[in-house]
Amino acid sequence: MAATRISSTVEPAWSRGTLIGIALIFLTLFLFVPLMAVFVEAFKKGWETYLAAVIEPDALSAIRLTLLIAAIAVPLNLVFGVAAAWTIAKFEFRGKNILLTLIDLPFSVSPVISGLIYVLLFGAQGWFGPWLQAHDIKILFAVPGMVLATIFVTFPFVARELIPLMQAQGSEEEEAALVLGASGWRTFWHVTLPNIKWGLLYGVILCNARAMGEFGAVSVVSGHIRGETNTIPLHVEILYNEYNFAAAFAVASLLAVLALVTLALKSFIEWRLQESGAHQPEGH
After folding, report:
1. Using CA atoms, how far apart are residues 260 and 24, in angstroms rounded to an integer?
2. Among the listed residues 132, 145, 133, 143, the one whose alpha carbon sits nearest the alpha carbon of residue 228
3. Is 186 in contact with 228 (CB distance < 8 Å)?
4. Sequence-separated contacts (24+) of 82-89 with Cβ below 8 Å
5. Alpha-carbon distance 51 to 63, whole Å?
6. Cα–Cα–Cα angle for 8, 12, 17, nearest 5°?
7. CA angle, corner 249, sides to 240 and 215, nearest 5?
8. C-beta separation of 119 from 221 below 8 A
9. What is the mean pLDDT of residues 222-232?
10. pLDDT tens column, 2-56
11. How many CA atoms lie within 13 A of 113 on its CB side?
12. What are φ and ψ of residue 278, in 5° steps?
């Protein structure tokens, strides 16, 4: 009987081979070939042309701005994600489902619409536009607006990674620590954080990758001021529209490298998550 049940759940060799072949063909056409094309086009005119495109002043400005926006948005989303996940996973309160829905909002709203929301709020004809102009405060077409747009489109990543992890772990260990006299802050650092560290890092990596690669929302609020408010994706678009393909692909290769590094880190953390789950004692 056992052999019959096992054989009934195993696909025939031809079926497995067909499915694997389809998957490999799909990955080759829509992932590997485009990725290789980026690097081939980037180095098509030689290393000197590639290096010149990367160290060109506008490109360096775009790289610095991209790193700056990520350096601001990711830590803020980390704090929000941990706080939101802690609240949702550890407590019961009215409006919990509403909070979950709001966290998922950026996944269901187009990034362009997200940017237009900030135009409506902070634009010259927006709700706060006249007041901002009167006090000489610039949000749109400047770094603050780009940071706000990036935070909006990336804030679900950390929270959504931690919520199911914290819910699965339960609150028994935290309650035991509190009973033994540990403060809430000490409980977080010595009990909660070690249990969620790999999930937290996983969410931060995804959040950072999206922050550095965001185009739609940032494009709406940036103003496309060359050398001032262009991130790497916006700089690539400008170069491509100017038919400067070698420089466009050279700068785009930086984002491709970021994607590959993110994929490697993501795979490593997934392995560590599986390892930590496998080594947890039963009943944990």
Report:
1. 18
2. 143
3. no
4. 82/158, 82/162, 82/200, 84/159, 84/163, 85/158, 85/159, 85/162, 85/163, 85/165, 85/166, 85/196, 86/166, 86/188, 86/192, 88/159, 88/163, 88/166, 88/167, 89/162, 89/163, 89/166, 89/167, 89/171
5. 14
6. 145
7. 65
8. yes
9. 88
10. 444 545 556 778 878 888 889 889 888 888 888 888 889 888 888 988 999 999 9
11. 6
12. -70, -30
260-269: pLDDT as tens digits: 888 888 788 7
Residue with tokens 């485009």: 34
8-17, 54-63, 88-97, 180-189: the lowest-pLDDT one: 8-17
Q: In the chain, which ranges are continuous DSSP H helix?
A: 2-8, 13-27, 33-42, 47-55, 57-90, 96-108, 111-122, 129-134, 143-154, 156-169, 172-179, 184-187, 193-213, 216-222, 232-241, 245-278
